[in-house]
Design goal:
single chain, alpha+beta
């Protein structure tokens, strides 16, 4: 009977399919500014920029630094490292039917300044309001991939 192996394969694919939440995150630091974009700058993608405009009100969002985090790799992920601050991300334990969560911490000059948890949802990036910087503001973005 061909139906049994096919049915078993489909069931197995369903069980091994994507878990709740993303396995990878795009973590970035943007500078929100009131001025119009310069052509030589790397800016936030338009969909993300529109959401950032709705929340923070700046005209443009220039990418300072960004990197991908693979949550399948165990341990802490230290990202967006600079001399003055950095971000720590850690995947939290997850039951099979629960959404994936991460814990995050932001350190400035070696001291913990922000700590929180984020439940990963495909269409809901996390925005963390950072300090004022030059004529704008630094904004941390954690975006599921």
């Amino acid at each position: 009977m061909m139906i049994r192996p096919l049915l078993f394969s489909l069931l197995l694919l369903g069980l091994l399919g994507p878990a709740h939440g993303a396995d990878k995150l795009w973590v970035a630091l943007y500078l929100g500014e009131k001025r119009h974009p310069d052509e030589e700058q790397t800016l936030a993608p338009e969909k993300l920029a529109q959401r950032l405009r709705e929340v923070f009100g700046f005209e443009q969002y220039k990418l300072i630094k960004g990197e991908e985090v693979d949550l399948q790799k165990d341990g802490d992920h230290w990202v967006l490292s600079r001399k003055d601050f950095f971000l720590r991300i850690q995947a939290l334990p997850q039951a099979p039917d629960e959404p994936k969560q991460i814990a995050y911490e932001i350190y400035k000059d070696g001291f913990l300044v922000v700590k929180g948890k984020y439940e990963i949802s495909a269409d809901t990036p996390l925005f963390i309001n950072g300090p004022d910087f030059h004529q704008g503001r630094l904004i941390f973005v954690v975006d599921p991939q």
